[in-house]
Amino acid sequence: MKDLLEKLQSQEGVRDEKEVKMMAPLTLAYMGDAVFETYIRNYLIQQSNLLVGELHKKAILYVKAKAQAEIVHQLEEQLTEEEWGIVKKGRNQKSATTPKNAELIDYKYATGFETLLGYLFFSGRIQRLIEIMEKSVAIINESRKR
């Protein structure tokens, strides 16, 4: 997965910190959503031999707004001050869409989480991005056991 992320990223090259910080938070969230969805799909395919319909149902457990809000709350103390600032910046954005199957507050924190993932992707921090996504999977897996 790391190789894929690095290959995708190298298509445009790592952006400098200043440029990434100037990107719109919802643009970062847009990329973060795609990166996390891809990571989860790959994770599930590696874990099982399920049909696509079942893979989709399982993927939703990880990528839905409520799950991402739970992830970001549990990761809060493990994030740097800068990373938490990015989460808050994404969380506070006014979105053109409204959540269909989520509480507004969960949707906002999920957007913040995706913004952080997009930020890490574009700023070339692939190892940190993978670390956060691995922790995210562990958080949701632990939550499902309860």
From TrEMBL:
Function recorded in the entry: Involved in correct processing of both the 5' and 3' ends of 23S rRNA precursor. Processes 30S rRNA precursor transcript even in absence of ribonuclease 3 (Rnc); Rnc processes 30S rRNA into smaller rRNA precursors.
Alphabetic keyword roster: Cytoplasm, Endonuclease, Hydrolase, Magnesium, Nuclease, Ribosome biogenesis, RNA-binding, rRNA processing, rRNA-binding
GO CC terms in record: cytoplasm
Stretch forming the signal peptide: none
Gene3D superfamilies: Ribonuclease III domain
Similarity comment text for this entry: Belongs to the MrnC RNase family.
The keyword Acetylation is annotated on this UniProt entry: no
Positions of the catalytic residues: 33
Source organism of the structure: Anaerovirgula multivorans
Name of the top EC class for this enzyme: hydrolase
Domain of life, per lineage: Bacteria
Cofactor entry: Mg(2+)
Protein known as: Mini-ribonuclease 3
Domain RNase III: 3-146
